[in-house]
Write a structure and sequence with these properties.
single chain; alpha+beta; D-Maltodextrin-Binding Protein, domain 2; Integral membrane protein; SBP; plasmid
Length: 383
C-alpha cells in the first residue's frame, strides 16, 4: 500500500520522515510513503479540510484540530490505536504535546515533534548574562539589538505568550474573554517598546528566517520569543554561528515562562486506507528508539520527554533540549475551535498595524476581544 503524505518544508519537518520512508520496502513491509512539503506559511494557515482531501497523512499544528473535526477530515486516534498506546504517549510526551491534540473527547494527531517559543540569543554578542525576566529583556534592548518575532501569525503568538507570563493565559479563566485589560495593556506597552527598538531588517522574517539571520549576521543579539529550532543550536553550514536557546522570559524570576505551544502532529485523514503496517510505522516514529536516536540524527525535534533529557542528544545539539524543557513543560495551549486560525491571522495583522501606527492600546484590545468573540462557536463546543 502506497500512501501520500504532507509535511512542512524545513529539515526539522521533513528529513526524518523522508529518511524513515526511504527505509521502507513496499513488498517487504507492506507500505510505502511519499512525503510532499509545503512552506511554513502553508503549514500555519492552509485550510486543513483541503489537505485532508488530498493526503492520507498530514503533519499539522494543534490549533487546526477544531477545523479538521468540524470538516470531518481526520480519523480519531481512538479508532486506530489501543487505549494503552494512547496512555503511553500521554505519559511519555513532553508537556502538553499529546493533550494539545485532544478536542471533543478524542485525540486527532500523534505528537511527532515538540516545540514552543523560547529565548534565542547570540551569546557571543552579549556582554552580560542571558535575561530571565521581561524587565531584563527590556533593559537589555537599550544596550543591544533585540528583535521580536512579529511576521505572519507570530505577532499574535508573542502577545499570547507574554500574557501567559504575566499571569493571564488567554481564554483560560474565561473561554469567551481573550485577556484582561490590565494584562493586555501591559503586554502591548512592552511589545511597543521592544518593536520600536528592533532592527528594521528582521521585521518581516518568520522564525526560520529570523534564526537564520541571527546565525549568519551579527546584527541581532537576542530574540526573547521565537519557536525553537534545534538545527540552529549546532549549525553545519559554513559561516553560520550557533544560536543559544534558553527558557522563555518570565514576569518574575520564579514565575512561569510564558510561551505558546507549537510542534507538530501526524493526523490520519478519512481518505486513508489504514493498514496494520501503517499503524506499526506510526508507532515506531513515536517509540523510544526513533525519538531518542533516529529523529534527532535526521534533524528532527522529538516529542518524548526522555529524548529531551538524553545526555547524548543534548551534547550533539548544544544543550538545546535541556535548556528549554521547562518552558515546554509549562507551555500554553491555544484554543482549537474551528474559527481560531482565522482569528489568529487577523489578530496578528491588527497588532502589527497598531504597533506601526501607534493605535491606543485600549482601542486595540477592544478590537482583539471583539474579533476573538466573533471566532467562537455559538455555544457548547469544546475548546
Amino acid at each position: 500500500m502506497r500512501y501520500r503524505a504532507l509535511t512542512w518544508d524545513h529539515p526539522r519537518g521533513y528529513n526524518a520522515l523522508a529518511a524513515a520512508a526511504a527505509g521502507l520496502d513496499e513488498e517487504r513491509d507492506g507500505l510505502a510513503i511519499d512525503w510532499d512539503k509545503q512552506p511554513l506559511e502553508g503549514f500555519e494557515a492552509h485550510p486543513i479540510s483541503d489537505l485532508c482531501a488530498r493526503y492520507d497523512l498530514i503533519v499539522l499544528d494543534h490549533p487546526h484540530v477544531g477545523e479538521a473535526v468540524a470538516e470531518r477530515g481526520l480519523i480519531p486516534l481512538e479508532d486506530l490505536f489501543t487505549a494503552a498506546d494512547i496512555a503511553g504517549w500521554q505519559r511519555d510526551s513532553i508537556g502538553p504535546s499529546l493533550a494539545s491534540y485532544r478536542f471533543a473527547d478524542r485525540h486527532w494527531a500523534l505528537p511527532l515533534d515538540a516545540a514552543t517559543q523560547v529565548m534565542a540569543c547570540r551569546a557571543d554578542l552579549l556582554d552580560e548574562p542571558i535575561p530571565v525576566t521581561w524587565a531584563e529583556v527590556a533593559s537589555l534592548s537599550e544596550r543591544a539589538p533585540v528583535a521580536l518575532s512579529l511576521a505572519g501569525p507570530h505577532a499574535c503568538l508573542t502577545f499570547l505568550s507574554m500574557a501567559t507570563a504575566f499571569g493571564d493565559p488567554p481564554a483560560v479563566a474565561d473561554p469567551d474573554r481573550l485577556v484582561s485589560a490590565e494584562v493586555g495593556e501591559r503586554v502591548l506597552d512592552l511589545m511597543a517598546t521592544l518593536a520600536g527598538r528592533m532592527p528594521a531588517a528582521v521585521r518581516g522574517l518568520n522564525p526560520i528566517g529570523l534564526l537564520g539571520h541571527m546565525a549568519r549576521i551579527d546584527k541581532v543579539a537576542l530574540c526573547p520569543l521565537v519557536y525553537g529550532y534545534v538545527n540552529y543550536a549546532a549549525p553545519t553550514a559554513a559561516g553560520e554561528k550557533p544560536v543559544t536557546f534558553a527558557d522563555a522570559p518570565r514576569a518574575t524570576a520564579d514565575g512561569r515562562p510564558g510561551s505558546t505551544l507549537g510542534g507538530t502532529g501526524i493526523g490520519v485523514s478519512v481518505r486513508c486506507e489504514v493498514t496494520p503496517a501503517l499503524l506499526d510505522h506510526l508507532r515506531w516514529l513515536l517509540g523510544a528508539e526513533a525519538q531518542r536516536s533516529f529523529i534527532p540524527a535526521h534533524d528532527g525535534q522529538p516529542s518524548r520527554r526522555d529524548a529531551w533529557a538524553d545526555t547524548a542528544v543534548n551534547e550533539r545539539w548544544g544543550g538545546f533540549y535541556r535548556n528549554t524543557a521547562a518552558t515546554l513543560e509549562a507551555a500554553y495551549v491555544r484554543p482549537r475551535h474551528a474559527g481560531y486560525i482565522a482569528f489568529q491571522a487577523d489578530a496578528a495583522a491588527m497588532i502589527r498595524d497598531a504597533l506601526a501606527d501607534g493605535t491606543p492600546h485600549p482601542a486595540l484590545l477592544d478590537r482583539l476581544q471583539h474579533r476573538y468573540a466573533a471566532s467562537r462557536p455559538v455555544a457548547g463546543t469544546e475548546r
